[in-house]
Amino acid sequence: MEINEKVAKALLSERAVFFRPEEPFIWASGIKSPVYCDNRLTLTAPKVRLIIENGLATIVKTEYPDAEVLMGTSTAGIAHAAITAHILGLPMGYVRSGAKDHGRQNRIEGKLEKGQKVVVIEDLISTGGSVIDTVDALRQAGAEVLGVASIFTYGMKKGIEKLAAANVKNVSLTNFDAVAKVAAKEGYIAGSDVKRLLEFRDNPSDESWIKEKNL
Fold first, then answer.
1. How do the pLDDT tens digits run along the chain, 215 residues long?
2. Were both Cys, which of 47, 63, 89, 128 would link to 162 (CB 3.0–4.6 Å)?
3. What is the pTM of this model?
């Protein structure tokens, strides 16, 4: 089994990625979504966690062999960065969404030297905005960001374009297409729902995929 399908199956088993096309979730933006993602749930499932952290470690070793430090995104990427760094024997830290309003007012936690080669560990990428913000903070601090290693990506056009424009490489363990395929195969959703899910992925603001259930 390919790693993207193995991770997809693991995420589905813990409902870290949960499909509900007949009763869409509503995002903070108001967009109706057939999928809900909470990869934090993998932290409480040791077998799934091991698959994911070993997978992230493999991405770092193969895609970013010169990595000197791992930096997690706040807050979901912190634990994954810590475990992956432990596997690889690398230093780690994390980047806050904003600077602290007390103490040293740090935004980057953990020791980071200018010029160090960094890989960002992220749990989920949709539009790419939050991880790009993290990369920008590291670059401003003088780090050389080699790229991102993430658990799951929607593969949305907007996200792909934003990452490319910001010159940010991302390698994910699995993606929306793989999870939808495995979800249908494992009986989490009907096979006929896959087309609708991919239509959502291609254009989240277009709700026509919802109406298709009545056709």
1. 799 999 999 999 999 998 888 899 998 778 899 999 999 999 999 999 999 999 999 999 999 999 999 999 999 999 999 999 999 999 999 999 865 555 455 899 999 999 999 999 999 998 899 999 999 999 999 999 999 999 999 999 989 999 999 999 999 999 999 999 999 999 999 998 999 999 999 998 898 888 776 54
2. 128
3. 0.93
